[in-house]
Design brief:
single chain, alpha/beta, Rossmann fold, Alpha-Beta Plaits, 3 domains, four-stranded parallel sheet, 17 helices, 45% helix, disordered C terminus, threonine deaminase activity
């Protein structure tokens, strides 16, 4: 089978009603900021929280009755795992998922909750593949590849059909790349419907496997990235050929850009995205001049972010924007000091979140006391106002870094 627009339309018909036709929303606030007309395809709203539902389901539906009896196996950092587990369970097919030991806890537990047998092995998907191959050779289980499979590519291509049906005059689409399945499918569908449309890919700069493969450069992928869903060391062979023919450019985004994109989506669009899902927005922000005045789209390909990570990112964002600061005060230790400082901060409308009272450490003089306050503030001007008021009252004050332990 060669993936064509007809095969993608066939996939759309077969999975209709069994996956979500996800919202394709105009990101008005981001559009105003970036100077373009930006649309977000919210694949984070799929049953499993990512676009992987589509390709996994279409592949499973094309198994023979004999293959279904043998069961299916997949390797995944989490999203493909949940897509395979969900639809295998619905269709009464045994599923085994091999996941890297570094996969987020939330994705591991959700995969188990969907009824799949989960095996943790290795640090990356490539490590997990070794275990998959052993089980396939031993038991004859059917391997559902996360991206390098024509049925999977066709299933992911249904996203492109939906985007062009909703917004037929798009100028460009920006899509995250792990193994390349989603970008391959979307590029085939969208360029069949609108031949002049431009396709762009995005990779985490720690895992530039597709861009390096296309440039015949040595592979350097590795490291810890927030975009674990696209942390692939070796891209697909099928997908590499499709992307080489159809994609205009591949952008690389770093960890700070991914973090900023996650926070921007939450604050400006009220959209929760995992790291991989936010890379399209990260690339558009980093290349805003390229897309100015254009009608563009990106896929929020997953929303399965660990709650603790999201909480930490939101707190870091507040600190970076000076909306949450750590203030250290120093004075002679005397009754009423804590109340005095708290009153001054309160009068400036600062909101005290936490207090750390230090008088017993060796580096604090015996008659002195250091008190740290975590304060919620409006902006840098508000922080300056609080510092000025405290110092006017004779209270020595300084701002600590959000990471300081001094």
């Amino acid at each position: 089978m060669t993936v064509t627009i007809d095969e993608i339309r066939k996939a759309a018909g077969e999975i209709h009603g069994e996956v979500v036709r996800t919202p394709f929303v105009h990101a008005k606030r981001l559009s105003d900021i970036l100077g373009c007309e930006l649309y977000l395809k919210l694949e984070s709203q799929q049953y499993s929280g990512s676009f992987k539902d589509r390709g996994a389901l279409y592949r499973i539906k094309n198994l023979t009755p004999e293959q279904r009896k043998k069961g299916v196996i997949a390797m995944s950092a989490g999203n493909h795992a949940q897509g395979v587990a969900l639809h295998a369970k619905r269709l009464g097919i045994p599923a085994t998922i091999v996941m890297p030991e570094t996969a987020p806890f939330s994705k591991i537990e959700r995969t188990r909750a969907l009824g799949a047998k989960v095996i943790l092995s290795g640090e990356t998907l490539d490590d997990s593949r070794k275990v998959v191959d052993e089980i396939v050779a031993r038991d004859g289980t059917i391997f559902i590849h996360p991206y390098d499979d024509e049925y999977v590519i066709a299933g992911q291509g249904t996203i492109g059909l939906e985007m062009l049906e909703d917004q037929p005059d798009l100028d460009a689409i920006v899509v995250p790349i792990g193994g390349g399945g989603i970008l391959s499918g979307i590029s085939i569908a969208s360029q069949a419907l609108k031949p002049g449309i431009k396709l762009y890919g995005v990779e985490a700069n720690l895992f530039p496997s597709m861009s390096q493969a296309l440039k015949h450069q040595p592979a350097t992928s590795g490291g810890s990235t927030m975009a674990d869903g696209i942390a692939v060391k070796e891209p697909g062979k099928l997908t590499r050929e499709i992307i080489d023919q159809r994609v205009e450019e591949i952008f690389l985004v770093d960890e700070s850009q991914i973090e900023t994109a996650i926070l921007t989506l939450v604050e400006e669009q009220k959209v929760v995205s995992e790291g991989a899902g936010a890379t399209g927005v990260a690339a558009i922000i980093a290349n805003a001049d390229k897309f100015k005045g254009m009608k563009i789209a990106t896929v929020i390909c997953g929303g399965n972010i660990d709650a603790r990570m999201l909480s930490g990112l939101l707190m870091r964002g507040l600190m970076r924007d000076n909306r949450l600061v750590r203030i250290r005060t120093e004075m002679v230790d005397q009754p009423g000091l804590l109340a005095k400082i708290s009153r001054i901060i309160g009068l400036t409308r600062g909101n005290i979140i936490d207090v750390m009272h230090q008088r017993h450490y060796y580096d604090v003089p015996a008659k002195m006391v250091e008190i740290d306050f975590i304060v919620e503030t409006r902006d840098q001007a508000h922080v300056d106002e609080i510092i000025t008021k405290l110092e006017e009252e004779g209270i020595k004050t300084r701002i600590l870094s959000s990471r300081s332990t001094d």
